[in-house]
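Entry type: protein chain
Record version: 2
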Amino acid sequence: MSTNFKPSHEEEEFIARQEIEKRQELAEKVKADMAAAELEKLKQLHWHHCANCGFEMHSIVYKGLTIEKCPNCNGIFLEAGELERIAGKESGFFYNVLDLFKF
């Protein structure tokens, strides 16, 4: 009993669409992996470097907080919440300044 099975035109289209979808998914995964790798590469290049001049930042303790300071231009990097902790919550002036930046 010999069976010469020949897929119909609709079956060929379905299989071709599935193959295209698989290739697109693979391409998207490769693209996402490359983007993640590029982001990590950029992070390693710029991690703890001054945004102003590019020198390596150094950790210092100021008012009980460890902050990053550039030895070249004296720029300072503060993480989220550190400015508030340094200025103190009792400072009305500080909150007036913050209100200027709220939308």
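Comment: The chain has a mean pLDDT of 80.
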